[in-house]
Amino acid sequence: MKLGRRQFLRGAGTCVAGASALALGFTPPFARAQETREYKLLQAKQTRNNCCYCSVGCGLLVYGIGDGAINSQESIFHIEGDPDHPVSRGSLCPKGAGLIDFIHSETRLQYPSYRAPGSKEWKRISWDEATSRIARLLKDDRDKHFITHNEKGELVNRWLSTGMLASSAASNETGTLDWKFARAMGMLCFDNQARTCHGPTVAALGSTYGRGAMTNNWVDIRNANTVLVFGGNAAEAHPVGFKWAVQAKINNGAKLIVVDPRFNRTAAVADHYVPIRAGSDAAFLLGIINYLLTHDRIQHEYVRAYTTASLLVRPDYSFEDGLFSGYRPGEIGPKTYDKTSWNYELDEHGFAKSDPTLQNPRCVINLLREHAARFTPEVVSEICGTPIEGFKLVCEALAETSVPELTTTWLYALGFTHHTNGSQVIRGAAIIQLLLGNVGMPGGGVNALRGHSNIQGYTDLGLLSLRMPGYMNLPMDSQQDMNVYLKEQTVEPELPDQVDLWRNFPEYFVSLMKALWGDKATKANNWGYDWLPKWDQSYDLLHVLERMRHGKMTGYLAQGFNPLGSAPDKNYTTQALSQLKFLVTMDPLDTETSNFWQHTGEYNDVPTEEIQTEVFRLPTTCFVEEYGSIVNSARWLQWHWKGANAPGESWSDAKILSAILMKMRELYRKEGGACPEPILNISWNYQNPLEPQPEEVAKENNGYALADLYDEHGKLIARRGELLSDPLHFRADGTTASFNWVFAGSWTEAGNQMARRDNTDTGWGCTPGWAWSWPANRRILYNRACLDPMGRPWDPKRRYLYWDGQKWTGADNPDYPLHSPPGSGVGPFITLAEGRGRLFSCTSLVDGPFPEHYEPMETPLSHLPYPTKSLHDPAVRMYADARARLGNVEHFPYVATTYSITELFRTWTKHARINAILQPEQFIEISEELADKLGIGIGDMVKVSSYRGYIKAVAVVTKRLTRLDVMGKSLYQIGVPSNWGFKGATKPGFLSNTLTPAVGDANTQTPEFKAFLVNVEKA
User: How far apart are the first and last CA of the chain?
Assistant: First the structure.
């Protein structure tokens, strides 16, 4: 059945009030302004790209017309999947299939515009007017509020009254310029989308395995014997990547198990579905740990050789009634605990003591056994509402893969991260996989499914308040001396003979400083160390919004980010933005944030005339209109090519930032001002400083030799001016420069490794010739752990690596010293001081070295089935105003959880016509039993309210949610999709974050979107 767009819309209903296209029984063609679909032309220009939505990173073929001749206007008319791409293989999900409507959206911005204080309308302005005014505002505020010294007289060179919120879908090259721009200004109020999604992943996986990223890759999922989707909904949020879980079922006979509050789209194709109460994940995971240890279902040799199970913990460490040793009553946030006791007992050489027999009661594994013992199946069932038989089914399915020849792969996403104890929840999953021996194995690992196309890349680049590129920490106030900073950041091995890549911290840091300041960074000035802003506390998004609300912020730049729709407690965010003097948004679309001041009825009920914020709305290019690289969830850096120019007067982010920076430099040279050195000295030495080219920046990310480099044997490894191929070539003497050490090898003298397109499978779905993966093109992290200490594969059928007598080789690049032979004692977790996976995370996290279950800040429970002195995570930082906006179960009796849907991506795709047709109107999901109890029918309009506000939406009455029995009481849960708003092509809707509390994960401040209390009533 083929229809033109007019007939299709007539069938669907142009008001799309009653049905979606899917209800008509056919798949619609994509919608465009033209009446008929254009077909591919023989002379069409084809460019290769990657989807801009989720972090599967699907390959695209983009077709455009226009040959660059005079009066010939380029235009993209068709996008399809790239059949050569190893992951997507030509597939696209409904979002990717609608990309043509995204780039041609009617809400694409065409020219810069300005909203004056108190105005009700936008005014068109020129780029010169916009960038000149912004530069003036930035300089005036910086000069007025720049802090050179803190109250102690310490040199800090920071600026706290203006901040920046970076993107999650822009290229790595744009991210590099973002970081240099913000830090040259001295900004600490600096964040990116990772703060609101996968921040806890880095904290948890980094403290357990050494790197905070997806351990395996999308295709490798097919190698699993059990696929556990717990903490996400892969079929819905990552549809094309999820094909590999289905392949595991079809080709490998794998069991697919889903644990989730809802019977979701992943559960619909699973072998087993197990329900759980939102916010109780840690109890479930601790129950699994208890089950595995109680029933002796762990991979003993792996645990003994490759985990910290045998290490002895200090005798003053303890845990009692929900609190770890060192608890400081009255303190909140990072200061809640004195973490001194959370360490190993050391021998006379400073190494951790060990008991290989595992008999000592202070062994990590024995302390873990004692810690998890409370979580029996009965207790888990009481807390989680999960039937005991369902919980045991999950435990037994995992336990079956404790043998060497079977593996479980774990898929999670925001279902784990969006909790106040999200980092500890993920730690629970990571510990389980260590006990089972599944880390480093094909078909194993803990696979954090990143949500945005380059959220991994922006995390790698350190675009967060206290971070620097390559997962280095920005110096703090007390680290006035660079040598003190280097000493405190350099990690020495805690067991003999370990690699511990962080012992090379000085090399990484000095190379970064040379990339930042160029020739201005010298040994005499400590490589420009004083020009870096120093911090006293985290200036993350939640903190910055708090500062705004209290009048401590003047300006803010939001780049490719819609914080009004992404930050918690939308009404509070509106109040915060209303206190700013100026707001700058950089986006290809007309977002809710840029229009926060605009009264749009009850969707955004604000007093427009009273809001005195002046707003600049700057149109930017989108993904098909620029060159660059993005990093998918599997750590693949993939290069994409420009297909056409952006509409109207749109500029690239790089051009916008450069124009503002150059005008600020001009002002500082003419007028002087506060601490001009960082702004004047930041390396912006591109061929055209007003528009740096992505290729230039990509090479800067990789790194250069600034002098001839020789190895320890006197062999020349790089000539001056050559691109580096390995971070082990970095030097701490100023002879190397690299913006991001983990990207070293991505663009070498052999060329752009990110642009490679060899999809040859070298075994187990590994395609090392396609693109480039950090670190050092490894596709499975910690892959040396797939072999025993003597180099024998745990599973002879999974011979992923092997020792050829001189070096390690195989299907993948070894994540291990190439020439360390079997039996060398070098552990496979080479970025940890122990060389082993951590069951006990020592002082890495602020709320405990073992995971612990704590209730969400809004909980239906008043107590737990075991003694505890703290119902909530005691290390959670919560501001008084936000705490006063918490509700209770008496007034808000139902637990709500947010989620995304396949047809829409956050608040972006509602701007694309075809996606708006597929999901035209906001809905919420309630169970049949609760709907019957409240007198709500299918399609009724309902009002969902929390203490912070309300939304209205159509009721979807479903069997996908069921009543749970929790602590002896009946509990109902509500599903709230987070995809609508008052801008776009869909029917206007409410921002779902209107309902959520302004509180975050104790370690990363990622908001608690997945568990909060609401009331539901018929509207």
Answer: 39
Better pLDDT: 881 or 69: 881
Cβ pair 920, 890 in contact under 8 A: no
Report the distance separating Cα 445 and Cα 438, nearest Å: 6
Q: At how many degrees (to 10) do helices 422-435 and 281-294 cross? A: 20
Strands (E), 813-927: 894-899, 923-927
CA nearest 954: which of 984, 985, 933, 931? 931
DSSP summary character for residue 1002: T
Q: Are 708 and 698 a contacting pair, CB within 8 Å? A: no
Average pLDDT over residues 311-322: 98
Cα 603 to Cα 594: distance, rounded to the nearest angstrom: 15
Judged against a pLDDT cut of 80, whether residue 652 lies above it is answered with yes
Cβ contacts of 781 within 8 Å, gap of 6 or more:
209, 211, 213, 215, 216, 440, 445, 815
- SS3 category, 808: strand
Q: What type of residue is 893?
A: P
The alpha carbon torsion through 474, 480, 484, 486 (nearest 10 deg) reads 30
Helix/strand/coil percent split, the chain, to 5 = 30, 20, 50
- pLDDT, position 74: 82
Residues 6+ apart with CB under 8 A from 292: 298, 395, 398, 399, 402, 432, 435, 436
Distance (Å) of CA 255 to CA 24, 229, 270, 292, 865: 34, 11, 8, 19, 32
Hey, what are 583's tokens? 């707001």
| pLDDT bracket for residue 132 (50, 70, 90) | very high
- Residue 815: which region, alpha, beta or left (left: phi > 0; alpha: psi -120 to 50)? beta
Instruction: Let me know: does 585 contact 114? Beta carbons within 8 Å.
Output: no
DSSP at 641: -
* Pairwise CA distance, residues 762 & 769, whole Å: 9
Cα dist. 92→25, 53, 105, 325, 328 in Å?
20, 11, 19, 51, 52
CB neighbour list of residue 686: distance below 8 Å, 6 or more residues apart: 692, 693, 696, 697
Angle CA 571–572–578, to nearest 5: 95
Contact 358, 307 (CB under 8 A): no
| Residue 1016 near residue 943, CB atoms below 8 Å | yes
pLDDT in tens, 399-434: 999 999 999 999 999 999 999 999 999 999 999 999
Which DSSP letter does residue 221 get?
A: G
Q: How far is CA 775 from the centre of its chain?
A: 18
Residue 25 region by backbone torsions, left for phi larger than 0, else alpha for psi between -120 and 50, else beta:
left
Q: Name the pairing type of β-strands 949-958 and 923-927.
A: parallel
Tens-place pLDDT, residues 233-268: 999 999 999 999 999 999 999 999 999 999 999 999
Cα distance between residue 401 and residue 253, in whole Å:
14
Instruction: Quick: pLDDT tens for 583-625.
Output: 999 999 999 999 999 999 999 999 999 999 999 999 999 999 9
Closest among 503, 501, 497 to 821, alpha carbons compared: 497
Question: What would the pLDDT profile of 40-61 be if each residue is shown by its tens digit?
Answer: 566 788 999 999 999 999 999 9
Spatial CA neighbour of 283 closest among 846, 850, 854: 854
Is the separation of the CB atoms in 909 and 54 below 8 Å? no
| 3-class secondary structure, 608 | helix
Residue 389: DSSP 8-state: H
From residue 980, give the alpha-carbon distance in Å to each of 9, 117, 312.
21, 27, 52
* Dist CA 938 CA 454 (whole Å): 38
| Residue 71 pLDDT | 65
Please state the φ and ψ torsions of residue 703, each to the nearest 5 degrees.
115, 150
